[in-house]
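Re: [ENG-882] Designed sequences occasionally contain unexpected residues at chain ends

Forwarding the minimal case from QA. C-alpha cells:
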C-alpha cells in the first residue's frame, strides 16, 4: 500500500508541474491534398531509420545526413520484442481528481527537501515491477528527441506487428505461449497484450511530450501493419480485429492522425496508405484522405544464399516523381538507412545480418552515391513545386503514345511534370511554348511550368566507388572445442518423442540438441556386408548438424523460400549402443504470414533408420533427450570473464576447419574514424561477438544463387532485377560499430559451426576508392534556376562536381571523356567520339584537391568532338 501511495504522490507532482511548463505546440490534421501542420498543407519527404539497427552514437549523424538529403520526417517502427523481452507488469496508477490539499503539501515538502531520496525510492519500487527495456539501442525516447533536436518530424509506427524482416515480426516469443492466443485476429488474449503494449508506448510518448500537439516531433502514428492481405485470408474475424484495432488506437488520444498501411478498408478516421516499389495509382478509401506512401522500397533485403539487390537511383527518383505528379503528398523511403541486424534480431528465416537495403545511407552510415545526392536534388525540385502541389489537383494531358504532362496550376502558381514512360527511347515533346527532351523512363520537373530544373534519369550528383581496405594486422587466435552433447549429459531433459524447438528454447538461443541412443545387435546384416544403414531426418528447419558417436556425419539446411530440410545419408554404426546427436539450428524466426502461434522449427520427424534386419526402424517415438544451447554459451565464452573459465589452445594446436569450435583473440582498436567491418570470408557459419556484444550471425559459406548481370534503370523494378554477388558469399563483411571498441584490450569471440580458418579473419575499413561524374550537355540545373527562367542567364552550362571524403584528396584522374563515353562508374570507356583534352581539364583543376568543379562545355575540353550529336562528360577520379 505504501508503494502505491509513493508512486501516486510522484505522479501527481509530475503532472502538477508539467502542466505549467510552456511548450510550442502545433495541430496536425489532413485533407485530400496533404497532411496539415499548423494549418499549412505540406509535401513531406520521410525516411526510415530503425533505432535498434544502429547505435546511439550513430543516431545524430544519420539523422543529420537524412536532413541534409532533404528529409522532413524520420519514420521508425517500435520493436516490441526488444522492449518487452519478458512480460511487463508495470503497476497502473490512476490520477485522482480529489487528491487532498494536505497530501499535495506533504508531497511538495518531500519534493523540495528530499527529492533525491524520494525519486531513488520511487524508481526502485517501480523497477521491481518493470520488465520493459528502453536502454542503449532500444532507447526510443532518446532517438525521438534527437530527431526533434535536428528540427525534423517523426512518424511512429507502433504496430506492434512490424514485419521489417525482424525476428518474429517484432512479436516477443513469450506471446506465442499465452494460453488460448491467436495472433492478429479477433482474439481476446492477443488483443489484451497488444493493447497493453500500445498503451505503454503512447503513454511514454505523452509523458515525454513527444506528440506534435504537445510540442513534440511526432506528427503521425500507425496501428497494425500491412494487415489487408491477412484480413482477406481470414475473413470476418479479421474485419472485426481491424475495427477493434482502429477504435483502440483512436481512443488513446494522441492528438495526431493514425494510419493503417495496406488496409483498403481502414475505418475512419484512419488513413489507409500504400507500400511498394511503385504507388502512383494508389487512391485512399475516402476522397478526403491524402495519398501517403509509407514504404517506397529503396532496394530489398539480402537473404543468406541469395544475391544482393540494388535499385537504380534513376528508377527510385522516377517512382517518387510519378507518385507526386499523381497527387501524392507524403512519401517515405523504406529504408533511408537500413543498418544492421545485430545479434539474433534478423527474421525470415535466413535474413542476412546486413540490412543495407541499398538505401541512400548505406549500412555503415555513409551516403550511397549517386542515390543519396540524386534524391536530395529531387527533393529540392519537389519543394520548389510545393505551393502549386498543395493548392490544386493536377490536370493530365497526353503528349504522345507514352508521354503525358501533369500540370498543377492556380491563379498564382504553376508547376508541371513531363513524363516519358517508354523504356527504350528518348522523345522530344512540346509543352507550352517550349520543346523538351525526355530520356526513357523519366520525368522532368518544371516548378514554373517553363523551366526544367530536374530530370529523374539525369544524374547530376557524383557517384562513389566504395572499397574495403585492411585496417589492422593479423590476429593471434586461441581455440576451444565445443563438446558434442549426448543423452548421458546431466543438463538434459528426457521425453518421449520429438519436441518443437522454439517450444523448448523459447528462442533464448539458436541451438537445441536432440539426443537419442540406437542399439545395434551383433547379428545385424550390415555389420558384415558393409552397407551402412540410411538415416533420414525431416526437420521444420532451419539447419541441422548430425553427429554419430561424437563424429560429424553431415549437415543440411533450408532457405528463405523453404526453410524445411531433409537429411538423408548412410551412417556408420557399430555393435552395441550408438549415440545420435542432432544439433538443430534456428536462423531467425519468420516475420510475415498467418497464425504466428502455429509456426515451428526443429526436428519434428519422422526420423528413420533404414537397412536393418527389421527393415526400417522409426526413431521418432522413442526417448529423446534435449539440451538447450551450447556449453560455450552457458559459460559465456564470448565475454571477458567467461572466456577465462576454460583452457584454450593456440599455435600449432589451434583448431582449423573443425566444426563446433570457439575462437578468441585480443586486439587494439584500428586507428582512424572510418567505419569498420570484419572480413569473415574464410569462415563457414556461426556467430561473432565484440566485447560481449553480439555482432550477428555470419554465414559466408552460403553462396549466393541466381543470376546477376547488367542493370538497366529503365522499366519496372522488382527484387530480382539488378543483383550482384552471384556465386559469392551473400554477406562477406560484418559491421562493427566503433563505439563498441576500447582503445586496447578488446575481445573478439567467434563460434564456428561448419569449420573455417580463423587466420583469414581481418578488420577492414570502408572508404571511398574513387568518385565519378556523368553529366549531360545542357543538363537541368537546380541552382540559379529562377535567373535562368527570367533570362538573366542564357544557355546555362552544367558543372561536374567531384569531392573526396574528409582526409582524402584527388590523387589521379582514372578516366575522363567528353563526347559519347560508355559504361558506368568504375567501368567507363571511350565511345565513338572523344574530346582530346578531356583529361587535361581535370588534371589541371582537380588533382591534389579535396573537391573541384569543371564546366561541361566543348571549349573546356578542346572543342566539340561530334557537333551533330548529344554529348556528355564521364569522369572518374581516385581518392587517396
Amino acid at each position: 500500500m505504501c508503494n502505491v501511495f509513493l508512486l501516486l504522490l510522484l505522479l501527481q507532482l509530475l503532472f502538477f508541474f508539467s502542466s505549467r511548463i510552456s511548450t510550442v505546440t502545433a495541430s496536425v490534421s489532413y485533407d485530400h491534398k496533404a497532411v496539415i501542420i499548423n494549418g499549412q498543407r505540406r509535401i513531406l519527404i520521410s525516411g526510415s531509420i530503425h533505432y535498434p539497427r544502429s547505435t546511439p552514437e550513430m543516431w545524430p549523424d544519420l539523422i543529420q545526413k537524412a536532413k541534409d538529403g532533404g528529409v522532413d520526417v524520420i519514420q521508425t517502427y517500435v520493436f516490441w520484442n526488444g522492449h518487452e523481452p519478458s512480460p511487463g507488469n508495470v503497476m497502473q496508477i490512476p490520477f485522482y481528481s480529489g487528491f487532498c490539499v494536505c497530501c499535495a503539501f506533504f508531497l511538495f515538502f518531500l519534493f523540495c527537501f528530499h527529492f533525491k531520496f524520494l525519486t531513488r525510492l520511487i524508481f526502485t519500487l517501480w523497477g521491481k515491477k518493470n520488465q520493459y527495456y528502453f536502454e542503449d539501442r532500444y532507447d526510443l525516447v532518446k532517438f525521438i528527441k534527437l530527431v526533434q533536436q535536428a528540427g525534423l518530424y517523426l512518424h511512429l509506427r507502433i504496430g506492434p506487428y512490424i514485419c521489417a524482416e525482424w525476428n518474429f515480426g517484432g512479436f516477443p516469443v513469450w506471446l506465442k505461449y499465452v494460453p488460448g492466443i491467436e495472433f492478429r485476429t479477433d482474439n481476446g488474449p492477443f488483443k489484451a497484450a497488444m493493447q497493453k503494449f500500445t498503451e505503454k508506448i503512447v503513454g511514454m510518448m505523452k509523458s515525454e511530450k513527444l506528440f506534435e500537439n504537445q510540442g513534440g516531433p511526432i506528427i503521425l502514428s500507425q496501428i497494425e501493419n500491412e494487415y489487408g492481405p491477412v484480413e482477406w485470408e481470414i475473413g470476418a474475424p479479421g474485419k472485426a480485429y481491424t475495427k477493434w484495432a482502429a477504435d483502440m488506437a483512436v481512443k488513446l488520444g494522441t492528438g495526431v492522425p493514425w494510419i493503417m498501411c495496406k488496409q483498403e478498408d481502414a475505418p475512419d478516421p484512419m488513413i489507409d496508405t500504400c507500400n511498394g516499389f511503385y504507388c502512383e495509382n494508389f487512391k485512399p478509401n475516402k476522397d478526403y484522405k491524402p495519398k501517403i506512401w509509407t514504404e517506397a522500397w529503396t532496394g530489398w533485403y539480402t537473404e543468406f544464399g541469395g544475391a544482393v539487390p540494388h535499385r537504380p537511383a534513376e528508377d527510385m527518383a522516377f517512382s517518387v516523381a510519378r507518385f507526386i505528379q499523381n497527387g501524392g503528398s507524403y512519401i517515405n523511403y523504406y529504408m533511408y538507412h537500413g543498418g544492421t541486424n545485430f545479434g539474433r534480431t534478423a527474421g525470415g528465416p535466413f535474413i542476412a545480418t546486413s540490412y543495407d537495403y541499398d538505401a541512400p545511407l548505406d549500412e555503415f552510415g555513409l551516403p550511397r552515391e549517386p542515390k543519396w545526392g540524386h534524391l536530395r536534388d529531387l527533393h529540392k525540385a519537389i519543394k520548389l513545386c510545393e505551393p502549386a502541389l498543395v493548392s490544386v489537383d493536377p490536370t493530365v494531358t497526353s503528349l504522345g503514345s507514352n508521354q503525358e504532362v501533369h500540370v498543377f496550376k492556380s491563379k498564382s502558381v504553376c508547376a508541371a511534370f513531363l513524363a516519358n514512360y517508354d523504356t527504350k527511347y528518348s522523345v522530344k515533346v512540346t509543352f507550352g511554348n517550349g520543346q523538351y527532351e525526355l530520356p526513357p523512363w523519366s520525368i522532368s520537373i518544371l516548378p514554373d511550368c517553363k523551366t526544367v530544373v530536374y530530370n529523374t534519369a539525369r544524374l547530376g550528383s557524383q557517384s562513389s566507388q566504395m572499397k574495403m581496405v585492411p585496417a589492422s594486422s593479423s590476429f593471434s587466435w586461441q581455440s576451444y572445442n565445443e563438446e558434442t552433447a549426448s543423452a548421458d549429459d546431466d543438463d538434459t531433459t528426457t521425453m518421449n518423442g520429438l519436441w518443437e524447438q522454439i517450444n523448448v528454447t523459447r528462442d533464448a538461443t539458436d541451438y537445441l540438441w536432440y539426443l537419442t541412443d540406437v542399439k545395434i545387435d551383433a547379428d545385424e546384416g550390415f555389420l558384415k556386408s558393409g552397407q551402412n544403414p540410411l538415416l533420414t531426418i525431416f526437420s521444420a528447419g532451419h539447419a541441422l548438424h548430425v553427429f554419430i558417436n561424437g563424429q560429424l556425419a553431415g549437415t543440411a539446411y533450408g532457405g528463405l523460400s523453404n526453410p524445411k530440410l531433409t537429411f538423408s545419408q548412410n551412417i556408420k554404426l557399430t555393435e552395441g549402443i550408438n549415440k545420435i546427436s542432432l544439433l538443430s539450428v534456428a536462423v531467425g524466426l519468420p516475420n510475415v504470414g498467418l497464425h504466428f502461434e502455429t509456426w515451428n522449427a526443429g526436428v519434428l520427424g519422422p526420423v528413420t533408420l533404414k537397412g536393418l534386419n527389421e527393415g526400417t526402424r522409426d526413431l521418432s517415438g522413442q526417448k529423446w533427450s534435449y539440451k538447450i544451447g551450447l556449453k560455450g554459451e552457458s559459460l559465456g565464452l564470448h565475454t571477458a570473464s567467461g572466456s577465462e573459465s576454460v583452457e584454450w589452445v593456440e599455435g600449432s594446436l589451434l583448431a582449423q576447419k573443425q566444426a563446433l569450435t570457439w575462437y578468441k583473440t585480443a586486439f587494439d582498436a584500428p586507428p582512424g574514424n572510418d567505419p569498420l567491418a570484419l572480413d569473415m570470408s574464410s569462415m563457414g557459419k556461426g556467430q561473432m561477438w565484440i566485447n560481449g556484444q553480439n555482432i550477428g550471425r555470419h554465414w559466408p559459406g552460403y553462396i549466393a544463387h541466381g543470376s546477376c548481370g547488367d542493370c538497366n534503370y529503365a522499366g519496372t523494378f522488382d527484387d530480382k532485377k539488378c543483383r550482384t554477388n552471384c556465386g559469392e558469399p551473400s554477406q562477406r563483411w560484418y559491421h562493427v560499430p566503433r563505439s563498441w571498441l576500447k582503445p586496447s584490450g578488446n575481445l573478439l569471440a567467434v563460434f564456428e559451426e561448419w569449420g573455417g580458418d580463423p587466420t583469414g579473419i581481418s578488420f577492414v575499413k570502408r572508404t571511398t576508392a574513387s568518385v565519378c561524374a556523368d553529366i549531360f550537355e545542357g543538363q537541368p540545373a537546380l541552382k540559379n534556376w529562377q535567373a535562368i527562367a527570367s533570362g538573366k542567364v542564357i544557355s546555362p552550362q552544367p558543372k561536374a562536381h567531384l569531392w573526396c571524403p574528409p582526409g582524402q584528396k584527388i590523387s589521379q584522374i582514372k578516366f575522363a571523356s567528353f563526347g559519347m563515353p560508355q559504361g558506368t562508374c568504375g567501368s567507363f570507356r571511350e565511345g565513338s567520339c572523344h574530346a582530346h583534352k578531356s583529361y587535361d581539364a581535370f588534371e589541371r583543376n582537380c588533382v591534389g584537391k579535396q573537391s573541384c568543379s569543371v564546366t561541361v562545355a566543348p571549349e573546356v575540353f578542346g572543342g566539340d568532338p561530334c557537333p551533330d550529336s548529344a554529348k556528355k562528360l564521364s569522369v572518374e577520379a581516385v581518392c587517396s
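QA comment: On inspection the terminal residues look reasonable. Residues 188-207 form the longest helix (20 residues). Proposing we downgrade this to a documentation issue.
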